[in-house]
Recover the amino acids of this structure.
């Protein structure tokens, strides 16, 4: 019998900036997702202290345990992140460093989708490749194709920072539909 339940996915933005282009992509996800995929935004990476084993020895900070639990409950995770210096933003890397140390690893065997947006023509592609390498360590199941890299993203949002470019919206919708199929295939 086919799995027809509504899938619940959480999204994490790698940018802390209020006017983030990646946050604009992230905000569009719920309306671009297919009917059988519900996307909820997770916040909190900016609330996590810098990873320090001495802090961990005192107990995991609340933002870490809350995010870990939300990821465990979800059917999948979507990262929307910019590229900083050809790589992953420090706040996102710090969050993954914390989450990689919690018991009952939340990313293990979890379907993960990566998206990026930038003002450059490459759209954050180098960040995506580095994030894939990091996610190998936590045993995440990274969705491969189609990849979404939104180049020159400043031209694809309106004044209210809403993702407005029809072609980009359509392509992201196609990626989300394929991700839902990937989640069901992994769960089968």
């Amino acid at each position: 019998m086919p799995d027809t339940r509504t899938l619940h996915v959480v999204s994490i933005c790698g940018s802390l900036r209020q006017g983030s282009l990646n946050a604009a992509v992230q905000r569009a996800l719920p309306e671009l997702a297919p009917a059988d995929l519900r996307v909820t935004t997770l916040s909190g990476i900016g609330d996590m202290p810098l990873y320090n084993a001495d802090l961990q020895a005192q107990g995991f900070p609340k933002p870490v345990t809350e995010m870990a639990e939300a990821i465990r409950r979800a059917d999948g995770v979507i990262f929307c992140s910019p590229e900083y210096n050809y790589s992953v933003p420090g706040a996102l890397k710090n969050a993954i460093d914390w989450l990689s140390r919690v018991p009952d690893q939340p990313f293990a065997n979890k379907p993960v989708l990566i998206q990026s947006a930038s003002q450059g023509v490459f759209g954050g592609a180098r960040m995506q490749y580095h994030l894939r390498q990091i996610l190998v360590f936590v045993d995440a199941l990274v969705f491969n194709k189609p990849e979404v890299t939104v180049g020159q993203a400043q031209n694809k949002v309106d004044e209210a920072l809403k993702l407005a470019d029809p072609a980009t919206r359509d392509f992201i919708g196609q990626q989300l539909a394929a991700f839902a199929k990937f989640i069901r295939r992994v769960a089968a």
Summary: The chain is about 40% helix and 15% strand. Helices lie at 21-32, 53-57, 62-73, 90-99, 125-137, 166-187. The mean pLDDT is 94.
